[in-house]
Design goal:
Blueprint: H1 2-33, H2 35-45, H3 60-78, H4 94-120, H5 126-154, H6 159-188, H7 192-220
Helix pairs in contact: 1-2, 1-5, 2-5, 3-4, 3-5, 4-5, 4-7, 5-6, 6-7
């Protein structure tokens, strides 16, 4: 009986992993094509039974995590090992670096969700935070992917690659700010200028938090290894 249960678990795991090959690009395409609709979809799906949630796409946190995993894999495959950048000891391990990136990029949707709840006057609890956080994860994923690719290209010695990397970073920020501004405007009933200012200020706060977390790791581990 235990052996059959193990086989069933392996079967379900294999199906889940293979299904990602279809639903990941589908989720990415739908997010890029209709980001506002995907954010509303994330909210609505949480009202369904757990077994019925996100049956047409990947769940938002999983989508963000897989995106960061892909970005990390691209970096491992393409970055020249002679690149002068050297990570601190704690982040020299691939799993630790990936975990740090997951936490760092999760700060952005977390702060956006908190700001949305705050401006609505809603009480901040684990339950009220879940829906806005999930919706924010959908649009954070393509932003994180484009930003990671841009930073990767900007670390190369080629001028063309540097220009392409800066273009990726610029497009990523512009797309993200536009999508967030539209969401804040429609969800909170703000003017375009008010929504944009709130989005930009929240992004600044998120970047400061990420920088402080990175600095704490660097100085806490004695800096980069020689």
């Amino acid at each position: 009986m235990d052996f059959m249960r193990l086989l069933k678990s392996i079967e379900e795991l294999l199906y889940e992993l293979v299904s990602w090959l279809l639903f990941y690009p589908l989720t990415m395409w739908r997010t890029l094509r209709q980001p506002q609709a995907m954010m509303r979809y994330a909210d609505v799906e949480l009202t369904d039974d757990i077994a019925e949630q996100y049956t047409e796409t990947l769940s938002p946190p999983l989508f963000l995590l897989i995106t960061l995993l892909l970005a990390h894999g691209v970096e491992l495959g393409l970055v020249n090992q002679t690149t002068p950048w050297s990570p601190p000891a704690l982040l020299a391990n691939d799993s630790n670096l990936l975990m740090f990136r997951a936490v760092a990029f999760s700060i952005l949707p977390l702060l956006m969700a908190v700001k949305l709840l705050h401006h609505k006057g809603a009480r901040l609890t684990r339950d009220t935070l879940r829906a806005p956080f999930y919706s924010q994860c959908y649009i954070t994923a393509p932003f994180a992917l484009a930003l990671s690719i841009g930073m990767l290209l900007s670390r190369t010695a080629s001028q063309k690659a540097l220009a392409a990397g800066l273009a990726f970073i610029l497009v990523a920020f512009v797309w993200y700010v536009i999508v967030e501004t539209r969401w804040f405007k429609s969800d909170l009933g703000l003017s375009t200028a008010q929504a944009a200012l709130r989005v930009l200020w929240t992004m600044v706060q998120a970047l400061v938090a990420i920088f402080m977390a990175g600095a704490a790791i660097v100085f806490g581990t004695g800096g980069a290894p020689a």
